[in-house]
Amino acid sequence: MGTAKFIFAGAAAITMLASSAFADDMTGMVTSINRLNNTISIQQMQKGTVGGSTGGAGALQQYKAKDAVMLDAVHAGDRVTYTATDADGTGTLTKLQKQ
């Protein structure tokens, strides 16, 4: 019984950490925008110098914009700061600002 509680607590902690990663402001570069579907693809930029000195690109993520107006201010190739939430396995942008 103690092992099951430990495993459940660990899984809950990992879930909370994964969802909180979407809560922080992130930086990235817009790779594509689909205004018909209200979606945007952003190549996340890694912060700091963890593992190297180049500060290379991270994962490519596709998000649904909370409001279609958010997408009007940006174009492919723009560097942006953004905040996203994860609802039902779908990333949703809550804030998008061109740098």
Q: Any key phrases for this structure?
A:
99 residues; alpha+beta; 20% helix
Distance between the termini: 52 Å
Biggest β-sheet strands, sense, barrel: 5 strands, mixed, barrel
In total, the number of strands is 5
Number of DSSP helical runs: 1
Describe this structure in words.
- The structure is a single chain.
- The protein is an alpha+beta fold.
- The chain is built from 1 helix and 5 strands.
- The chain has a 5-stranded mixed beta barrel.
- It starts with a helix and ends with a strand.
Which SSEs are present, and which pair or pack?
Blueprint: H1 2-21, E1 26-34, E2 39-45, E3 57-65, E4 79-87, E5 90-98
Parallel strand pairs: 3-5
Antiparallel strand pairs: 1-2, 1-4, 2-3, 4-5
Quick recap of the structure?
With 99 residues, the chain is α+β, with helices and mostly antiparallel strands.
